[in-house]
Hints:
- It is a single chain.
- Helix content is 17%, strand content 44%.
- It has helices at residues 7-18, 71-80, 136-146, 202-211, 266-277, 325-333, and strands at 2-6, 32-38, 41-47, 51-58, 65-70, 85-92, 98-104, 109-115, 130-135, 161-167, 170-176, 180-187, 196-201, 217-223, 228-233, 236-241, 260-265, 284-290, 293-300, 305-314, 319-324, 339-344, 351-357, 360-361, 365-369.
- Strands 10, 11, 12, 13, 17, 18, 19, 20, 21, 22, 23, 24 and 25 form a 13-stranded antiparallel β-sheet that branches. The chain has an 8-stranded antiparallel β-sheet with strand order 5-2-3-4-16-15-14-9.
- Strand 7 and strand 8 form a beta hairpin.
Amino acid sequence: MKFTVELKPFADAVSNAVLALPQKATDFRFESILLTLEKKKLSLFTTDGDLAFTTSLSTESNDKGSVLLNARRLQDILRSLPDETAEFETKKKEGDSEVVFIIDTGRGKYKISGSSERQERSEKKLDFELSFTLSSKEFKDIVHKTLFAVSLDSMRPAMMGLLLELEPQHLRVVSTDGHRLSRYTQALETGSKDKLKVIVPSRVFNIVQKSLRDEDAVEISVATKAARIQFKFGATVLVASLIAENYPNYEAVIPLENDKKLVVNRAHLASTVKRVARFSSRGDVRLQLDVDTLKVSAENADEGASAEEIVPCSFKESLLIGFNAKFLEDALVHLDSEEAHFEFSTPTRATIVKPIYQGKPSDQHLILVMPVRLNT
């Protein structure tokens, strides 16, 4: 087969397709990219067994055919080539299924080996119970506000995913690693008749986010019987398996009686925590709260180092509490309001952080952070 395409969009499509492959694979199918040319369309397909990624580009070629190539090798080659139009061609080797894949840029020719054996694409037609659409901005907002709190512990597979709670008028997305939690609610016509819960691997959201263009909308479809979810945007379709586990009862850990309220400039406190945490031997910071005053401090007794900063705030009581500095900074960075609203109870109970919109704390985005025990 022979076709001509611009190198940059082709390289971008290949790079996006590579995101669906595992970092290490023992099966050649899971390190390969299938290029299929038909009806002036070049399709790219990759899979890791649980996730299938398909995208396409237009070309003027009337040829048809397919070739299977090492995906990361092709990606590296395309990245190194200048941004121009190139001609691509496959030529069979005599006596076997191996082919030569030739890239001709006009100023140079490059050849790599491939296979003409067609990779099996066994994805069955899915019956979707519901579908809904998010704009690119809405999708990226959800990812920004929740993905940071997902667990990396493979012993707790449910928490390595994002919980999607689908109600007729709302989409709620939850993530937690056991030490912090983020819950974001989006008003949306989901197409769900009742409350439906599914757990989507966080990696899937990460792939969609990286592949998504600003002008694209994302159509999300759920097939609960097949335990699959589909993301369709632009010329790309990604189908992935859902996590077949029970998500923790996250609502049980969200305190309802936190009566100590703090209002503080979000960016100011985030930058303060980041600076002061550099002086901590354990990666934690102390927050000493008094009337309209917040002192953030940390120390490293072994090195004789310490730091403290005063941050103006609105607070009417007195409280000493400690946090993992990264978890506290993450909570602040992933809010999108100018001010942050904290709700405390005691130094050992979970703290709630919310954005402030139009002068009031909002339940649309709630972040929970567990405190750490301080050495006094």
